[in-house]
Structure of mannose-1-phosphate guanylyltransferase:
Amino acid sequence: MTDIIHPLILCGGSGTRLWPLSRKSYPKQFARITGAQSLFQASALRLSGVEFAPPMIATGADFRFIVTEQLAACEIAPAAVLIEPEGRNTAPAILAAALILQEQHPGALMLAAPSDHVISDTNAFRATVQAAIPAARSGDLITFGIRPDRAETGYGWLELTAALGAGDAPVPQPLKRFVEKPDATTAQAMLDGGRHLWNAGIFLFSTEALIAAFAQHQPEMLATTRNAVSTATRDLGFTRLDPAAWGQLEDISIDYAVMEKAEQISVVPYSGGWSDLGGWEAVWRHGGPDADGIVTHGPTTAIDCTNTLLRAESADQQLVGIGLEDIIAIAMPDAVLVAHKDRAQDVRLAVQHLKDAGVAQAETLPRDYRPWGWYESLVVGPRFQVKRIVVRPGAALSLQSHHHRAEHWVVVAGTAKVTIDDHVQLITENQSVYIPLGAVHRMENPGKLPLTLIEVQTGAYLSEDDIIRYDDVYARERTPKT
Amino acid sequence: MTDIIHPLILCGGSGTRLWPLSRKSYPKQFARITGAQSLFQASALRLSGVEFAPPMIATGADFRFIVTEQLAACEIAPAAVLIEPEGRNTAPAILAAALILQEQHPGALMLAAPSDHVISDTNAFRATVQAAIPAARSGDLITFGIRPDRAETGYGWLELTAALGAGDAPVPQPLKRFVEKPDATTAQAMLDGGRHLWNAGIFLFSTEALIAAFAQHQPEMLATTRNAVSTATRDLGFTRLDPAAWGQLEDISIDYAVMEKAEQISVVPYSGGWSDLGGWEAVWRHGGPDADGIVTHGPTTAIDCTNTLLRAESADQQLVGIGLEDIIAIAMPDAVLVAHKDRAQDVRLAVQHLKDAGVAQAETLPRDYRPWGWYESLVVGPRFQVKRIVVRPGAALSLQSHHHRAEHWVVVAGTAKVTIDDHVQLITENQSVYIPLGAVHRMENPGKLPLTLIEVQTGAYLSEDDIIRYDDVYARERTPKT
């Protein structure tokens, strides 16, 4: 019998190095960087199929509805969505998931993987995972090592006890040690020596072996994480780990917490394409530069450019580059980044600067994801604002009222069930309804298709905090911050 | 008595070198490049005041309502707005205006000036014009020459018979000859010699002297232009030169047509700041680079940049530059240009490429100016579109109907008089009205304030050409191209 593998997809991270596409409110793993799917969706699909059980997901509270929506879009039903009350790096999240899995499937094999990397060859990756099963079954903690093709200083490396042969067979190897991000000389020496691989942060283990390793090396973390799991609450399909216990946990990666200390550990080499897309320079390289070194995405025009990445993220925005060399240009309707390719990592400085200046684009996108769907502001004028609102089938906005604004809703797709004070009505495409100032109202999508409506707000004060909630199926606060 | 000067502001041009800010539908002279006013508005204001009569304007039919709106915004009532049926360069337009002015004010002094240049020191410019009056009154054709501060190859130059002194006094000088755009060596020699000025294309003359010069050097053009003027039609305050006569005119600048041939011509030097803003590199220079060579405009962030222009044209779009050197970056919500500064002139190649590809951004802006005001599309989705529409006080859209769409109008500012079939109603802020598919309808702004409404269109076909016009106060075609 083949062992089924339980994937754990880690998607709590929130980097700024791919700003403006990746923002705190909608980070890299959920963005469409390399194709029609987000990196998270691609990860979930890569870990789907006969050899995999439904995935567990570990994420932050802010991203739970993005996770739900993106999984639904690729028709994947997760086994569980764990909500980390705060980011605590990978060790606590992986341990919590292992404890939950161990209760349900004692001794199950778990594959823990980040969701913000790109792996080009799904079949090769799956074959590599399969090749690691016997060692994992025998109690090894397996880490996957990427065969390097350059002296990369941005990754951690794995040192083997002996050089790999030329063959690509994914045979488990003994690990000598983890190597921190190296300097250029060290990286070159490691590349030349053939005894080092990149650390991809992907792990395979049996839950028993992992829990045993934590018992040996991190007994306190194990006890606290058990607490966080045993007092977790289930809420709308999410498993919300206990915040009090979680708050006591150390912020530490699984490498530091147990992998570097464990005795029975091995490395399985992976030879297919891989990138952590750790910055725009990595996106450029992954994009496959043409003979002039040009990579483009979206409606772009490159004239006499070399070694340049041009990305227009919206179909409605044209990006033109002329005579550029070693330039990264990322265009979005609300924010544009132009950077020298060697300085692409410094986008974090710009994001910090914008954040300090109170600029919304530092951390948020125009489109705001909510439990019931999403909305975006189309135009803000004096005493009016126009929004596009999309409500998922079966979803409902809270029962609410506003002190300072009236609203017109025009349905342009689907059907809305609208409650205004005591009156309930269905309105459908090409119909509209008026919500007077002060009226208690609710919108629901009772149908099977997404509901799209245009909301025209009028009034003297149009901020999101003019909302009084009377009842909310998503248990949000009555007077929210946003 | 001081001679009053009649300004003629030329604003028919349509360049692409400042794309994406300047587009065929809304060219450079109407864009806000250097401040709160457009170059055209700044020109009109510079030529206002006690020493000037109300200006005459010469423009193309496509721009007539932009002219009207921009003049109204700076409270200038033009003496006449001449519509050139087709662009014929400066000679026919200046001559037509001179003929009209000569009828009304025989022997009047006219100052003909382009509207797409920037002149920093209004007082110095006006003093220079005043200093030229005696020579113009005595029958000279005056051209103004800009004292050069660099060996510019992008301009035509004026050669004097003797070197200018160091003083700044605007004393009329004899012109030896016009010099075509020079190569770099020639330009440097001219700069060093002190006998050459830049040709700004600004002229002062009495209408009698100018018409006499045309009679001598361009008798055929004079006769044809007289025809175009005598059969001009007046239409909504515009003087529409006769298209048949106009079509026979040569496309030629006033320099070539008469100035280079005329005998009684002199040059008045101008020492204040001037730029033709002939490309983004000129905009950068005019912007006053700081010690690092950085010029910014709008919400921009420059980190470790040198000799770089960063412009964000919308308050809602952030532009970030990191580690850039000699880069021009112009961000707009629908189009972004990033170019090496030495290649900024090649933006025309990009515009041509986009035009060939049928890309709207090549020539048009999201905001579309109409006789009655303007509109812009806020979002286009499947089977729906949302527009913001602004109607000027007293203006009316045509009586119309659509085969394929219904419309919801929500008024967010001002008051609309809405006719739907036989029913007329007033709707005001926070009210809405529904226009069923096929209904014959009209919108008017009967008030004293601009009317702003949000239009939500629904239907299977939403292009502008689904419009049947029954009656139009602006005499447009019943089934227009756009």
